[in-house]
Amino acid sequence: MTRVLFDHQAFCMQTHGGVSRCFVELYRHLPQDIEARICLRESNNAYIREFGLADAESAAYDRWIVPGNWPCKGRLFNAWNWLRGERNYWSKEAYNRAEVIRQLKSGQFDIFHPTFFDDYFLPYLNGKPFVLTIHDMIPELYSQVYDARWDEQMAGKRRLASLANAIIAVSERTKEDVVRLLDIPADKVHVVYHGCSFQVVANVPRLVQEPYLLYVGSRLYYKDFDLFVRDVAPVLRRHPELKVVCTGLEFSADELAMMKRHGVSDRFLHYWVRDDDEFFSLYHFARCFVYPSEYEGFGIPILEAYQADCPVLLNRASCFPEIAGDAAVYFTMNQSESDFTAVLESFLSMSDADLAEQKRRQRERLARYSWERSAQQLAEVYRKIC
Prior knowledge:
Elements: E1 2-6, H1 9-13, H2 18-29, E2 34-38, H3 46-50, H4 73-83, H5 92-106, E3 111-113, E4 131-134, H6 138-141, H7 151-163, E5 166-169, H8 172-182, E6 189-191, E7 212-215, H9 225-238, E8 243-246, H10 253-261, E9 268-270, H11 276-285, E10 288-291, H12 300-307, E11 312-315, H13 320-324, E12 329-331, H14 340-348, H15 352-366, H16 371-385
Parallel strand pairs: 1-2, 1-3, 4-5, 5-6, 7-8, 7-10, 8-9, 10-11, 11-12
Helix pairs in contact: 2-16, 9-14
């Protein structure tokens, strides 16, 4: 039996999100010879709560007296813990970190697996190995648009990558970037693909009645949302019935101004998604899901769209051809060239038979990815270094 200890970091950083969901799914699907534990005293993470993976404590920082952070809460909570004979806890992060350190000092584990890049744990390993997961190298590749707040994360990633006994990358492309940018030996980096957490929803209601294209997630610099708006505008003008539905944050003032310049302000709709069932509906009824991003570590929305039987249009960039294979319609979109408008027009005129074939290839490709398979591959890494 190999005992693996995961820490708290991702589950304090995120209430929802790909990093924390990935760790929860891997944890849930590990084989029986891997005895794993997520070390948490409290968390508001949706996936932790959904599967009951952390003990709820009435004394936990976030829920103490009144939930959330408020003035002087840290000082009062600290004083209250002193009265209980506990240590100094100024925040939820410190509260959880203290528990991880206590478990590390006990030595009741074989492998430690931090869930992000804070290196606080290094003095307490006592010679035990640790495994590091790197989901992408976006801050390093786009440092010109990331401010100094990211410097600490990048420095921690670099230091931990050099010291880790093994590194998990989520695609071959991410592995190449880790090796190149962090100067890590290739044989130290193991590729473990993601699975898909979506469940097929029967009789799902349609949330948007008009025909629409779907854009999912953030609209940061490297996502090429500005290029997408520019290149989809001519298609929207030729197809007055067609809308574009976007999830994520509300449109910014700059984004609204950009849509207005291209004459498509009334063609973009924002939908605030409340749960996976709503996400499934948006994918399922979309004419297609469009992913114009120029870089991703893996691209989980590809699998989500496949699961919902939604045709996928991908920028021929980053790891997308690696993940999607021949089960996508590809376009080129960057600052110097783009054929997206022509590719989208061609897709919209696709026959029913060709569309059915496209969906068949997507279902076939999806079968390559599962959390059970991912967890088995992760377990093999644990066994090798234990």
